[in-house]
Amino acid sequence: MWHKYIKQAVYTGIPIVCFLILFFHPKNYKAERLLDVVAKPVGFFQTPVFELKKLFFYRETWDDYIRYKKQNEILKAKLMAITENLRRQDRSYRIQDFRESRPYNSVVANVIGRDPSNWNASLIVDKGQEQGVLAGQPVVTPLGVVGRVFEAGKNTAKVILLSDPGFAVAAVVERSRENGLLTGTLQGQLRFQYLTEKADVKVGDNVVTSRLSRAFPSSILIGQITDVLASVNTHTVECSVTPAVDLSELEEVIVIIKDERY
Q1: Are 148 and 160 in contact, with CB atoms under 8 Å apart?
Q2: What is the pLDDT of residue 142?
Q3: How far, CA to CA in Å, does 115 sit from each of 66, 112, 118, 164?
Q4: What is the pTM for the complete model shown?
Q5: Nearest-5° angle of CA 110, CA 187, CA 193?
Q6: Are 71 and 215 a contacting pair, CB within 8 Å?
Q7: How many CA atoms does the CB half-sphere of 65 hold within 13 Å?
Q8: Are 188 and 120 in contact (CB under 8 A)?
Q9: What was the pLDDT predicted at 89?
Q10: Can you give the pLDDT at residue 259?
Q11: What pLDDT, on a 0 to 100 scale, did the predictor assign at position 58?
Q12: d(CA 111, CA 252)
């Protein structure tokens, strides 16, 4: 009989003890500790159940993974296409603005080929004599000088880039108006030569096309001076110039049609 009373006392005492622990000893007890104690055995039993669940539903989970992976690849391809289209539109807007701001005629051409043996020496564009493109005409982008037309076919033309050692153009320092001759080099940098010993040039100066040039209109950006070297023997100054245009990433160029306006 007394077992019955003990059982009732235990059942009655458990909630009372829990109540006292939770509400009458806040300084000596934190609820988080009880949760941690309870969570450990629960987690112990949940782990094998979770692993068994993964085994039973493996095929369904794998199929979902494959489906989501394909959807992700499709979305990536769409994002790349949208990004490329935005870049193309941005280039088109800049080219249009450049052409509208200049007083001379020009033709927009797409780059369709390069020389694999010398990537930054020349390129092929999809405009030629039928579009008014002729040998000797300047080739630029909104960022600056690219080179000049070396030879023109019926609907294509070869462009020699300003980094080629055979390229040369009369140039001037935009800030100080010091004149010289700018040529290409095999290293990709440009040489700005024939400056006087006392020429006012310094690193960071912009170099633009000069009015003395017969091939290019004036004031088109060529590049920026990155080094100044003085020659003791010839009493002249020579500068190293970095092109304003990244010649390795050209996709469209502007061929300037020569006329009496420059």
Answers
A1: yes
A2: 95
A3: 42, 11, 5, 12
A4: 0.69
A5: 100
A6: no
A7: 6
A8: yes
A9: 86
A10: 63
A11: 61
A12: 6
What are the structure tokens assigned to 25, written together? 């000893």
**CB pairs under 8 A, 24+ apart, for 174-181?**
174/205, 174/206, 174/207, 174/208, 174/219, 175/200, 175/205, 175/206, 176/200, 176/201, 176/205, 179/210, 179/212, 180/239
Q: Residue with structure tokens 């080094």? A: 227
Collapsing DSSP states into helix, strand and coil, what is residue 153? Answer: coil
The CA distance from 59 to 178, in Å, is: 75
Domains of the chain listed by start with CATH number: 2-56 (no CATH), 105-262 (2.40.10.340)
Residue pair 102/241 in contact (Cβ under 8 Å)? The answer is: no
Distances in Å between the Cα of 247 and the Cα atoms of 49, 159, 213, 229, 254 are 61, 12, 22, 25, 14
pLDDT at 87: 84
Helix (H), strand (E) at residue 218: none
Q: Give the CA diameter of the chain.
A: 123
Residue (of 23, 46, 49, 50) closest to 34 by Cα position? 23
The pLDDT assigned to 258 comes to 72
Chain position carrying tokens 């100044």: 228
**What's the pLDDT score for residue 26?**
47
Residue 35 is predicted with a pLDDT of: 47
Q: What is the pLDDT of residue 59?
A: 63
What residues of the chain score a pLDDT lower than 70? 1-60, 62, 119, 232-233, 259-262
